[in-house]
Amino acid sequence: MKALVYTKPNEVQLQDRAQPDLLPNEVVLRIEAVGICGSDMHAYHGHDPRRLPGLVLGHEFSGTVVSSASPDFAAGLRVTGNPLITCGFCDYCVQGRNNLCSNRTMVGMTRPGAFAEYMSIPASSLVHIPQHMPALHAALTEPAATALHAINMSLKAMTRPLPEQKVLILGGGAIGMLAALLLKTYGCHGTVMAEVNPLRSRSAEEHAGVETYDPRKVEPKENGFDYVIDAVGAKVTRTAALRAVKPGGVIMHIGLQDWASEIDMRKLTLAEITLMGTYTYTTADMRATVDLLERGAFGDLSWVHAMPLSEGADAFAALDSGNIASSKVVLIP
Fold this sequence. Notes:
This protein is an alpha/beta fold.
C-alpha cells in the first residue's frame, strides 16, 4: 500500500508499506479521508520527541472496514474513530473521561497512523457514522470534537450563558475555526479572532462570520472579553489572553505550541480569572460531534481543502509556508 511517511524534520515521503495484518479485537480500515492536524505539523518540524522519523502520521480519519476481528463492525461499514487507544479500566476510563486514560496510546504516534491507504485500529476505538456522510466531513470529527469538548468544559465555569459572552479566539487554525463555527451555532455573535495569516483571516470572516485582526499590528482592548480561547498555546498568546480577559472571565487553553512560559499570576489571582486546560475529547464527545456534523452545526465546511494523498508532501509544505487559505487540509488516499 501507499503511505505518507515522516522521514526527517520538514520532510514526508510517499512510500510503499505492507498492508497491516488483522489482529485480535481489531479492524483494518481502508482510509477514505484523513486530515493534517497541528500536531502532525509539530512532528513534521521535528518538535515532538514522541513521533520519530519512519512513522506514518495521521489521526483524523474516516474509512471503511475491510476486515474485522470484532462482531460489532462488519466489513463494508463506514466509520470514524477515536485515535486515543484507551484501556477501559483505569479510574479515568470508568469515570467517562477516557481522554485522560492512564494507559493511553495513540494512532499516528505509538502506532502507524492514517496517512495511508489502510490502517489497523482496535474495534473499541471506532465510532459509527451515518453511512451517507461525506468522507471529508467524517474526517473532521476529531478536530471538531476537540472544539466541542473545550467549549463544553468552559460552560461549567461561566457565570452567564454563553450567548451573552464577548468572545476572543486566538488563532485561526482548524481548532480556532471550528470553535468559531460552533460558537455561532450556540448563539454567540460578535466573536473576534486574532490571526496573523491574511488568507486564513479572510476565510474565517467569510465562513464563520467573525471579526479578525492581526495581533502583530493591533492589540485588543484590555479587559475586553468574557471568554478567551487560546487555540495556539504560545507564550505570546498566553500573555495576550490574560491581558484581554475581563475580571471574572474564563480562558480556555487548547493549543500547546510552547510548553512553558510566565503568565500574569497577579491578574489571574486578583481578578478571579478561571484558566482551564483541555486535552482532546472523550468518545462521548466524538459521538456527539458526528451528530452535530450531520446536522450542519459546523456550517457547510466548504473552507476545508482536499488534496490527494500522493500530494501529501506538497500539502505539508503549503501549510508550513502559510500559502493556503484553508486552516484544514484533508488528504484523500
